[in-house]
Amino acid sequence: MKFATRKNGTRDGELLLVSRDLSHGVSAADIAPTLQTALDHWEAVAPALSQRYDALSAGRAASAFALDTTTLAAPLPRAYQWADGSAYLVHSELVRAARGALLDEELWQDPLMYQGGSDTFLGPRDDVALESESWGIDLEGEIAVITGDVPMGSRAEHAGRHIRLLMLVNDVSLRALVPAEIKKGFGFFQSKPSTAFSPVAVTPDELGDAWDGARLHLPLTVQVNDAVLGTPHAGTDMVFDFPRLVSHAAKSRALGAGTVIGSGTVSNADRSVGSACLAERRALETVRDGAPVTPLLRFGDRMRVEMFDASGQSIFGAIDQRVVQYVPPAS
Fold first, then answer.
1. Per-residue DSSP letters for 128-159?
2. pLDDT tens sequence across 245-258
3. Residues in Cβ contact with 60 at an 8 Å cutoff, skipping those fewer than 6 apart
4. Are both 62 and 133 inside the same structural domain?
5. Residue 179 belongs to some domain of the structure
6. Which of 90, 125, 136, 155 could be 176's S-S partner, Cβ–Cβ 3.0 to 4.6 Å?
7. Residue 57: which domain range?
């Protein structure tokens, strides 16, 4: 199944089912008003949702309409928890090498993960509004899973059964704010503004052979201002797979249905495929030439993150956003 959330003036929006080719949608609000409700009652509502999805994809759904992605929020407009990992250690290695540091050996054994803000996710076509270009604006193309309830202490070999949905991520990062926060020793906060997600979230069965239960084996296409920044392969060089990341998050706490867990920036050791963030390209330039040349994002720049199946069909739809200057509300 493919799910989206239509903006309707409420915080959590209206649950939609979206056809396999992303062309049409139909409301599922009579079955589950929101995606969070569906996740909370997954076993009870999944059969009815599946039946309607099959009718929609076959062109038989009553009240189907042409899908307009500009009307969509993130599949989960807000979540009880958003935890982002760092599964592609070739990315971490490169970024640290650019500042003359090595990746600690223990990071190859235990995932890095931070808890991000989850109260205000951005929709796939929402502007990224920020106060200053001096904050060092960057995009990060990632994959994320949404879980059902996960018991505390779930082992990696069992954690995959709790993965309900997958989606794409633009984890906006403010590079100039990172060093001061890292120095304090408490991790990211101001340097990680609201995260954006793809138009739809999909059940694992929609991915066919590209999903092996742990990794998504397809390239991720990341663009800045219509130029391809990179097409790194999401199934390659992923040191910690999604069941391992879910297990890591659940080591000392249960995870509630609707927990979102990210992969971190998709990155490959084969640098010919490009990068999923500007920081990585700038790090490559620093290692090679002594200083970065590629600028970070400026107001007016566009970002696009998308994934295509083997036939060239967009799976999740595109995250397509513009960076704009934030205008505070009138006091």
1. EEES-GGGTEE-BEEEEEEE--B-TT--HHHH
2. 999 999 999 999 99
3. none
4. no
5. yes
6. 136
7. 2-71
Residues 236, 268 contacting (CB under 8 angstroms)? yes
pTM greater than 0.85 = yes
Whether residues 137 and 284 share a domain: the answer is yes
- Answer yes or no: is 274 within a domain: yes
pLDDT tens per residue, range 12-35: 999 999 999 999 999 999 999 999
E strands in the chain: 2-6, 14-18, 24-27, 65-66, 72-73, 81-85, 113-116, 128-130, 137-138, 141-147, 163-170, 173-174, 196-197, 201-202, 220-224, 227-230, 259-262, 302-307, 319-325
- Do residue 62 and residue 81 come from a single domain? no
278-289 and 89-97 are packed helices; what angle lies between their axes, rounded to 10 degrees? 50
Domain count, the chain: 2
Assess whether 65 and 188 both reside in one domain. Answer: no
Cα distance between residue 218 and residue 316, in whole Å: 12
Listed in sequence order, the DSSP H helices in 177-271 are 178-184, 242-249
Specify whether 66 is located in the same domain as 81.
no
